[in-house]
């Protein structure tokens, strides 16, 4: 009998075959661990996608807020520019009114000097004419004021604007 044909050798071969089969065939514990690991990997992937979506949503919302603020600042800048132009026109008008007033005062002074030189009844008549004559001294608004045309956006009843009283 050969060593391979002997009953002991055949029994040793079967043990070796069973041991080799056990190594190739997964056990119940490894199957459970592998399934848990696969589920955990899938859940991690889902959570990562959800976190990415939420972060993207938060960034987009913040960008929209910034865009709205920039738009609001642009509108406020336009209103301020129009108010500056109106203020500059008012300043120029005030300067012109002051010049007209000084001219009128100097004309009145000249007329008073001439009246005092003439003296008597004729001088008194000249002073009365000075007091009655000329155009009245009053400040006048410019004809094309933007103040009447420019209104804040919140006064038109547009929604989305907050009003803060100071």
Description:
The longest helix has 91 residues, at 28-118. This protein has helices at 7-24, 28-118, 120-132. The chain is rod-shaped. The chain has 166 residues and is mostly helical. α2 (28-118) runs antiparallel to α3 (120-132). The model is unreliable at 13-18 (pLDDT under 50).
Topology:
Elements: H1 7-24, H2 28-118, H3 120-132
Helix pairs in contact: 2-3
Q: Count all strands and give the number.
A: 0
Number of helices: 3
Chain-averaged pLDDT: 77
Topology order in helix (H) and strand (E) letters: HHH
Largest sheet: none
Low-confidence stretches: 13-18
Shape: rod-shaped
The level of helicity is over 70%
First and last CA, distance: 114 Å
Based on CA atoms alone, the radius of gyration comes out at: 50 Å
Question: What can be said about this structure in brief?
Answer:
Helix content is 73%, strand content 0%.
Defining key terms:
166 residues, mainly alpha
